[in-house]
Amino acid sequence: xxxxxxxxxxxxxxxxxxxxxxxxxxxxxxxxxxxxxxxxxxxxxxxxxxxxxxxxxxxxxxxxxxxxxxxxxxxxxxxxxxxxxxxxxxxxxxxxxxxxxxxxxxxxxxxxxxxxxxxxxxxxxxxxxxxxxxxxxxxxxxxxxxxxxxxxxxxxxxxxxxxxxxxxxxxxxxxxxxxx
Length: 180
Ligand code: MN
Prior knowledge:
By secondary structure, the chain is mainly beta. 11% of the residues lie in helices and 40% in strands.
């Protein structure tokens, strides 16, 4: 089961997060989605989630994403989440995995470069995922334009960098707190 890790980490008697077995596949004719959730866990971080073939590929980004291309932020790959998690906001109770408030910080759609439809976008992202280099164009409220996830070769396998490409949407000196 692809979402086994997700299920095993959580006690669904206690948390209101969605169950994995309810996971609905995204619609074929719609653009794949992304969401960034601000997570007031024991350490504040931002969870960046990207729809890929029916699940949300997920990274915990301690400093959050940035619109400034000179900022290279660590993004730690975590377990896949069910697609419905994109709509989750609420408070995970004390004593549970990831206890603390979760709010949707940004959301929207994405596509791969030169990819008009969902299928070809997802194929490119899947290939990029294997190679450790993913390039996406985001269309969110806060995050827009091209971003890259780059896996750090010498670090632990789960460590990636999230970097804004220097395009028309880039903002030098952008600070995450100004946008909240
Ligand atoms: Mn989190």
